[in-house]
Amino acid sequence: MDKVLVTGGAGFIGSNLCEALLEKGYSVICLDNFATGHIENLLPLIEKYGKQFQLIVGDIRKIDDCKKAVEGVDYVLHEAALGSVPRSIKDPITTNEVNISGFLNMMIAARDAKVKRFVFAASSSTYGDSKTLPKVEEVIGKPLSPYAITKYVNELYADVFSRTYNFEYIGLRYFNVFGQRQDPNGAYAAVIPLFVKQLINKTAPTINGTGDYSRDFTYIKNVIQMNLLAMETTNSDAINQIYNTAFGERTTLNQLFNYLREFLSEFDTEILKIEAIHGAERIGDIPHSLASINKAKLLLNYNPEYSMRDGLKEACRWYWDNLK
Questions:
Q1: What's the predicted TM-score (pTM) here?
Q2: Which terminal CB of the chain, N or C, has fewer other CB atoms within 10 Å?
Q3: Is 213 a catalytic residue?
Q4: What is the DSSP letter of 287?
Q5: Is the pLDDT of residue 187 over 80?
Q6: Which of 147, 152, 174, 302 is catalytic?
Q7: Which domains, and CATH codes, for the chain?
C-alpha cells in the first residue's frame, strides 16, 4: 500500500486519520511537535501497528523537518495548524507562522518530493462575514479573524501551486468538527468537549451570547470519510478543488446544550438539572454556519454517515468512559 504523511497526527483529527489509514493497510508517518497534540493519542497505534506506523517529532515551521517527513511519501494529509479564533486574536504572529509559513514549507517539501496529492484542512471560517446560507464553496466574505485569514491564504497558495507547479491538491473546509480525542482541556478548548467536561463535573457551562448562534457540527467519522475520498479519488474533475466538509444541518448552541444534557443524563440523571449561563458574545465569531455539501456529493461521492445527534451521542459515550 502507499505511504501517507499525516501532519499534526497526534492531534484530535490527525490521530483519528492515522488510525483509519492504518486500518486500511496504508503505511503512515505522523509529523507532530506536540504543541497541541498528545502522545497518548498515538501510543495505541504505535503498539498495534509497529513498523507500519512511524512518528517523527518535528515542526512544520522548520523546512528540514518537512523535507525529512515527506521522504518516500505518496500522499500528504496536512492537519497541522494552530486552531482557535480567540487564540489567533490574542497571538496573530504565532498563528501566522504555523498556519501560513508552516503550510508553505509543507507544500514546498511535498512538491519537491513529488507527492501524488496534497490534501489539507481548510476552514469554514473562510466564509467570514458572508451572510449567504447555506455556504457554497464559491461565495465567501471578508475574514473576521487572523485565523480565518491564514486558512484562506492556504487556499490561495494551493491554487497557485496547482497552476505553477502542476501540483495536485484538495482542500477541505471543516465545519466545527467534534468527536473522540478532542481535547476538553486548555484555554482554547472547542465548545463540545468543554461543555461535556463541565457537565460531567456538574459545572454550568457558559454559552457566549443568547445561544442562538448556529453551527454545522460535523462528526469526526464524516471528516475521515472526506479525507479518504479526497486522497483516493480518481475523478480528474474532483482534483484542485475546495470542498465543504460537514453534515449539512444547523444546530444552535442552545440546542447543543440540551442535546448534551439529554445524552449525558443516560449516565447520570443529575446532569438534567444543570442550567447554562449566558455570557458576552465572542469577538470574531460567525453568527451562523451551514454548509452545502452538494459539491462533495457530486464530485467525491461524499455521503456522511453520521448526523449531528448520532455523532454527539457516540461522542458523549466516549467522553464518559474517558473523562470519568
A1: 0.94
A2: C
A3: no
A4: S
A5: no
A6: 147
A7: 3-178+219-247+289-306 (3.40.50.720)
